[in-house]
Design a protein that fits this description.
- With 429 residues, this protein is α/β, with parallel strands linked by helices.
- It has two domains: 3-215 and 411-422, 3-Deoxy-D-manno-octulosonic-acid transferase, N-terminal domain (Rossmann fold), CATH 3.40.50; 228-408, Glycogen Phosphorylase B (Rossmann fold).
- Helices cover 45% and strands 16% of the residues.
- The protein contains 19 helices and 14 strands.
- It has helices at residues 3-22, 32-40, 43-53, 68-84, 96-102, 122-132, 146-154, 178-183, 195-203, 216-225, 231-237, 251-263, 278-287, 318-321, 342-345, 362-368, 378-389, 392-408, 412-422; strands at 60-65, 88-93, 113-116, 136-140, 159-164, 189-192, 209-211, 242-248, 268-273, 291-294, 307-311, 325-330, 351-353, 372-374.
- It has a seven-stranded parallel sheet, with helices on both faces. The chain has a seven-stranded parallel sheet with strand order 10-11-9-8-12-13-14, sandwiched between helices.
- Helix 9 links the parallel strand 6 and strand 7.
- Helix 4 packs across helix 10 (216-225).
- It is globular, with a radius of gyration of 22 Å.
- The two termini are 22 Å apart.
- 41% of the residues are buried.
- Mean pLDDT is 91; it is low at 24-29.
């Protein structure tokens, strides 16, 4: 295991403890770092006491997702797994966004226990596995925690990577990628989204690879079929066609969306920031030249006269909210982390997004069938939206194409669960 990797993690763990002690006088600080530090305070003891209290004799599946978006991949897999067998589901997150959204709703999510993932030091990895005792470990998309993987391999625990997309610029192909290539040996099976990813892995001798497709389609379809309504949003959208800007992540996203919302005085927008904080809401309002309200300021009786933008300042409903929309902009495309497009297309919404699409396969597919559009400026977003607003026949065709595309790609969940359940547990060492 690389010395520099472990040294950096040990230093990081020490800094977290030091910052936590220094800032324990500031409990009202709701920043992401503050939440992360608070979440790791006494984390191992919390995990141990929680698991000790759960004395059921059940097989344990450990799922790890970086954040809420990655949990969208895990959700349908967990649901189908529970339908097939009685088991315990332990879910870990790296980010506070995922943890805070799911921990209070873990039973609805089909999860028994939700924890932050302890930092990836050798001692933490050993203690965590000693405490949780998983029969199988499942990582989402692009999680390569070297010490956890090394310890899982040493213990011969079947380990899986789900919905991986392996590009030519992945760390395995870099000069420093030896440790990451070695870590791939820990995976019993790597389930990739496309043939290109499979071929890239085969180039470096990794053949335990299966092309399964994306369970995000199954998750989005399930959400779309779930009865859900919101009186405030229905009141705001009554008689209006809504433009939904989902997971607006940075200043560039906000610039595009707010410029278009300001230009069209007859456009009504639901804007969902990726990070929900009071200063974020204030910044959104300041970018608009018309009246906007935060959801928390409203009730079903609110008079929305003159209000053209509704800002959603709570977490966890975006996959349902798209059902009220007609067009969508998906945030994160000016960072490496474009958010889920499938959640919008399942309702038949054409979507626009920023240019960084390399980590996903769906954007390229949607561009090919004209349902998706890369935009890099506010003028490009405006042109795209104006074209769609003026052409009802094009909109009808795009809506049909989007729904057909999502239905055509369903079924990955069943394939993945079959692999998980049919992989035998090796004999104990």
């Amino acid at each position: 295991m690389p010395v520099l990797y472990n040294t950096a993690l040990n230093i990081g763990q020490g800094l977290l403890r030091a910052v936590g002690r220094r800032n324990n006088q500031k409990p009202d600080d709701a920043g992401k770092l503050r939440k992360f530090i608070d979440g790791h305070a006494g984390l191992m003891q919390h995990i141990a006491s929680t698991m000790d209290a759960d004395r059921r004799d059940l097989p344990t599946y450990w799922f790890h997702a970086a954040s809420l978006g990655e949990f969208g991949v895990a959700r349908p897999v967990i649901k189908r797994l529970r339908e097939q067998e009685r088991c315990r589901i332990v879910l870990t997150f790296f980010s506070s966004t995922g943890y805070e959204a799911i921990h209070p709703r873990r039973q609805l999510a089909g999860v028994d226990h939700v924890f932050y993932l302890p930092l990836d030091t050798p001692s933490n990895a050993a203690r965590f596995l000693d405490t949780v005792r998983p029969q199988k470990a499942i990582f989402m998309i692009s999680e390569y925690w070297l010490n956890y993987l090394n310890e899982l391999k040493r213990r011969r625990i079947p380990t899986f990577l789900v919905s991986a997309i392996i590009n030519a610029n992945a760390p395995f192909f870099r000069w420093y990628g030896g440790a990451y290539r070695k870590a791939l040996d820990a995976y019993t099976r790597i389930m990739v989204l496309n043939g290109k990813s499979r071929l890239n892995l085969e180039r470096i001798g990794c053949t335990r690879v299966t092309e399964t497709g994306d369970p995000l389609f199954d998750n989005a379809i399930a959400l779309a079929q779930t009865p859900w309504k919101d009186e405030i949003i229905e009141h705001f959208g009554l008689g209006r066609e809504l433009f939904i800007a989902g997971s607006v992540s940075d200043d560039k996203d906000l610039e595009l969306v707010s410029t278009v919302a300001n230009r069209h005085t007859d456009l009504y927008t639901i804007l969902v920031p990726h990070e929900i904080r009071p200063d974020t809401v204030d910044r959104i309002k300041a970018s608009l030249n018309h009246k906007a309200l935060a959801y928390s300021e409203c009730s079903p009786a609110t008079d929305f006269t003159g209000v053209r933008t509704l800002i959603i300042d709570f977490v966890g409903a975006l996959g349902y909210l798209y059902r009220y929309g007609r067009w969508a902009y998906i945030g994160g495309g000016f960072t490496p982390y474009l958010h889920s497009i499938i959640e919008a297309t399942v309702y038949g919404l054409p979507t626009a997004f920023g240019p960084n699409i390399e980590r996903k396969t769906t954007p390229t597919d949607l561009i090919d069938i004209r349902v998706g559009r890369i935009v890099t400026t506010a003028d490009e977003l405006d042109s795209w939206l104006s074209e769609l607003r003026s052409d009802s026949s094009l909109m009808a065709w795009l809506r049909k194409s989007a729904i057909k595309y999502t239905r055509h790609n369903r079924g990955a969940t069943e394939h993945i669960v079959n692999i998980l359940t049919q992989t035998p547990q090796p004999a104990a060492l």
